[in-house]
TrEMBL record:
Annotated Ketoreductase domain residues: 3-189
Lineage: Bacteria, Pseudomonadati, Pseudomonadota, Gammaproteobacteria, Oceanospirillales
Keywords, in A-Z order: Oxidoreductase
Organism listed in the record: Litoribacillus peritrichatus
Pfam families xrefs: adh_short (PF00106)
Protein name: SDR family oxidoreductase
Amino acid sequence: MAKTCLITGASRGIGKALALAMAKKGYLLALTGRDQAQLHSVRDEIIAQLPSAHVETRMLDITDYDQVGAVVDGFETSLGGLDVVVANAGISVSKPIGVGGFKEHQAVIETNVLGLMATAEAVLPYFKERNAGQFVAVSSVAAFRGLPKHSSYCASKVAVKSYMESLSAELLGSGILTTTLFPGYIDTDINRHMVNRPFLISAEEGAKQMLVLIEKGVKTSTVPKKPWSVVSQMMKAVPESVIAKMS
């Protein structure tokens, strides 16, 4: 029987690429995003390539926390249960601290952290009832070192990392899997404004590698695994004077 997968933030970037990669592997898809027109475009693009694909879409602002539960409930019913949930929705802002950007930084935390937590709260009761399922969180290599002008984004990805460590410990010994992925620079709108994007890969290649890791059931991994598994550890030792020059 085909597996089902919910992907949040699926209207563009990594979410869109992952949706297409999973459709090619036969997953039944539940896709959410804030832009209904773009969601429908993603669905149509998948169906055009794979006419037999099953793709359901629901518009969702992940910061409408009550609505997250309603959307998850709807997909649980329409798909007969969710096997994999990828909490991918996220935003970023490039702005120094103390220049009047609090509302933008607040939106990053609300989306990247609270939105993911709301998704987990909605999904876990179903997983626990079946003692099965996989919850996948998309963090970032930004979780390994705070970068100038990206304070809220880095903080949000550290929070995701710690939250998933707690969830993993709570579920130890159960039939429920947790996977935390730490993408490096994957070519999407969220980082195209940056001058330096070392070890850049396409969204399609990033999604392909992410799907391999998800299907292996890994607990944590950088994406790509190399060189970021090494670089992420080295980042902790980089002098602050060097970090200060990065933006």
